[in-house]
Amino acid sequence: MVQRLKEVDVVVIGVGMVGSIVAKELAAAGYKVVGLERGQTRFTVPEFQSPAIHDELRFDIRKAMMQDNTREPVTFRNQASQVALPVRRWESFLPGTGLGGSMVHWNGQTYRFQANDFQLATRTRERYGKNFLDADLTIQDWGVTYDDLEPHYDRFEYLLGTSGKAGNIKGQIQPGGDPHESPRSRDYPTPPQKEHYSGAMFRKAASSLGYHPFPQPSSNLSQPYTNPEGMKLNACVFCGFCERYACEHYAKSVPQTVILPVLLANPNFELRTGCQVQRINLDSTKKHATGVTYIDAVGRELEQPASLVITSMFALNNVRMLLLSGIGTPYDPATGQGVVGRNYAYQTMSTVASFFDEDVHINPFMASGASGTLINDFAGDNFDHSGLGFIGGAFIGAVNTNGRPIQYHPVPPGTPNWGKGWKQAVVKHYNHTVMFSLHGSSVAQRQNYLDLDPTYRDAWGQPLLRMTFDFPQNDIKMAAHLTAKAVEIGKAMGAKQVAGNPRKGPYTVTQYQTTHNTGGSVMGDNPKTSVVNRYLQSWDVPNVFVIGASNYPQNASWNPTGTLGALTYWAIEALKNKYLKNPGRLVSA
Amino acid sequence: MNVLAGSIMILAMPCALAHAAPSAKPSGATPAAEAPAAPCEACHGAHGEGMAAAHVPRIAGQSADYLKKQLDNYADGTRDSPVMTNFAKALSDKQRIKYAMLYSSMPMPQSPQPKSLSAVQFARGHQLAFQGDERVRVQACNSCHGPDGVGVLHAAPYLAGQSADYIASALKSFQQGTRKNDAGELMRSVAKQLNDADVIAVSGYFAQVNLSTK
């Protein structure tokens, strides 16, 4: 029998970065908030302490921090004509689980998107004409502008204490920063991290080619910092264990270090862990949510009534929750109708490896997850795409995040894949190679989408999410064009061999690329092409707000977390100042 | 050099006389340990064993990078000590390297300080060393200083078997900001989160760690 609990004002599904920030703000405003987290409680001490946290086998290979895919995988196929199969081991992308969410194992790369990105469809038409794009691309504007989000980007960066160098403050170009960035109201809260040797080499070479290198914005902090919530963070020690790991030094900005202690101290908030939400419950009109039903850690089925439901899970799980709950019309690629699951996009990652003689010592192990040196000269629409046959771009940078022994072993093309020859090549090149990352945008395409799998179910009997995805030709062309540019930089660094590895299709889930899964519950101005309005409120069920990278209509040339933080504060402002004062639709359909 | 060394000896002498104690001479001393006395010897001992009761640290077996950096920092003022500042300023860069190399090559003494902690203090010291404390947002000392404070070459000095009084005074100097040669202010950040009882507990804990393999 389902036990019905006492009604609360707000239920937050997923206590990661978004859930922590939303819950903190609403609890502080006096609302009773319950946070439901499927994973376990964890903090810097004791869970993140070394030496246990530096276990590469456990965290890198066996993915100890990730969603349990023995109980809750995703199914995958490249095209709708194929049968999707469950992803039994995470490789391509790594959705996290547990208190603090995926942010606990992030690299700390903290970007803003550019003004152009939020109006991509309009700006592309204006600059290149309406027939420039492939017909099956479904890119669209976000319904918010960069100017709407700027104060919220600022607030998020100051919450995290992000270390960086501004390139444009209120229209004034700042030497040493990124001159392509959209104007920011003030500089980063802390100065950039120290530059890696590979970054210094990249800076010199990129400058000689006329590009504009700048330090990567990092939420592994360059110096001690106290954020506006009163949380104190330490400086990073460059141990090289950021992504896939948690930080033992209180130096990486994650919910545990920037906001969770403040939230947990508020009696208006109650955290419940080990809670697997099954669905958002709707009343008979299907236009109003009454709360959620979940199964707790000991297997009891519980109903938590609430006036307002916030889904703040990883992007893929936000979409799945809407589909499981019957909120919004599922997308049908055959007709192009429906919205939930539409415009799933990813990130188009390419690499370039520059091999040096053995007297050039790179020391890749001295690193943080975001201490690279980059250029944005080929990101977004910062270069003329006329005649190129694609839109979008990538940041290109020497982003040396680690030199961990199991996973990091760059070798030149033609090296044997195993055995003595491979081992000799690893020894020879380990300390003498510079890796570039080309962090490419991802356009939405009609054939790429998310829906519920017709066959496979999770440990609780619910259908799994099914991903249908392959790289659009637009992005394959972009990767090829930009990799050639990056190879030129490698040559300008004086490498004796430069190997470009542009992303090619088909997309595979068995090779790590990035965890930047976006779309599926996209935001916008039109309920026919979006799931939530510009305030991230469901068009169909106005007392449900969906906040995640699932809101992105397509993905831009940068890591998505900074923009998600800005959207979170943007939505909170609408919740506090508009919705909660007068619950109802914030935008008429 | 002799003139400089002479003046240093004068400075160091009162300290040495006041706390004269039989030095725990490790067996199997290396030829380096038998080399002509460095000016450091009066306080730090012929074998780098230090003088625990006088806050003088062991330096035998400490990493050369760490020792050289401390000498540089005493000289440039980022680490303050009435004795060591003058010492270090008197040394040339070459001499600093030489003495750093000399003491780093000596075997790390294997005689821990006697236990002086209550059970509660010991438990607290062990907790801070191995686990840290979320309540005061302090990470485990061993995260940087290695398993049971054995040290991590180049990066962090050993604490195991170190003088408790010395560790405590080092933590105090980080708290007070008279020592500010820590990268990223890491030790200042940590030390400021510790109270007096924590400092006694964690210093005493590391002092009694026995690295003997016997």
How would you characterize the overall build of this protein?
The complex is a heterodimer of chains A (589) and B (214). Chain A has 589 residues and is α/β, with parallel strands linked by helices. Helix content of chain A is 22%, strand content 18%. In chain A, a hairpin with a 6-residue loop joins β12 and β13. By secondary structure, chain B is mainly α. Helix content of chain B is 47%, strand content 0%. Chain B is built from 10 helices and no strands. Chain B has helices at 2-18, 41-44, 64-76, 84-90, 93-104, 119-130, 142-145, 164-176, 186-192, 196-207. The chains are: A alpha/beta (589), B mainly alpha (214). At the A-B interface, loops of A face α7 and α9 of B.
CATH superfamily of the largest domain in chain B: Cytochrome c-like domain
Annotated CATH topology of the largest domain in chain B = Cytochrome Bc1 Complex, Chain D, domain 2
Provide the low-confidence segments of chain A as ranges.
Answer: none
Helix content of chain B: 40-55%
Quick overview of this protein structure:
The complex is a heterodimer of chains A (589) and B (214). Chain A is α/β, with parallel strands linked by helices.
Topology:
The complex is a heterodimer of chains A (589) and B (214).
Chain A: E1 3-4, E2 8-13, H1 17-28, E3 33-37, H2 56-61, E4 74-77, E5 85-86, H3 115-118, H4 120-128, H5 146-160, E6 168-169, E7 172-173, H6 197-208, E8 214-215, E9 225-226, E10 232-233, H7 255-258, H8 260-264, E11 269-273, E12 276-282, E13 289-295, E14 301-311, H9 315-325, E15 348-355, E16 373-375, E17 394-398, H10 419-429, E18 433-440, E19 449-457, E20 463-468, H11 473-492, E21 497-501, E22 544-546, H12 561-579
Parallel strand pairs in A: 1-14, 2-3, 2-14, 3-11, 4-20, 14-22
Antiparallel strand pairs in A: 4-5, 6-7, 8-16, 9-10, 12-13, 13-14, 15-18, 15-21, 16-17, 17-18, 19-20
Chain B: H1 2-18, H2 41-44, H3 64-76, H4 84-90, H5 93-104, H6 119-130, H7 142-145, H8 164-176, H9 186-192, H10 196-207
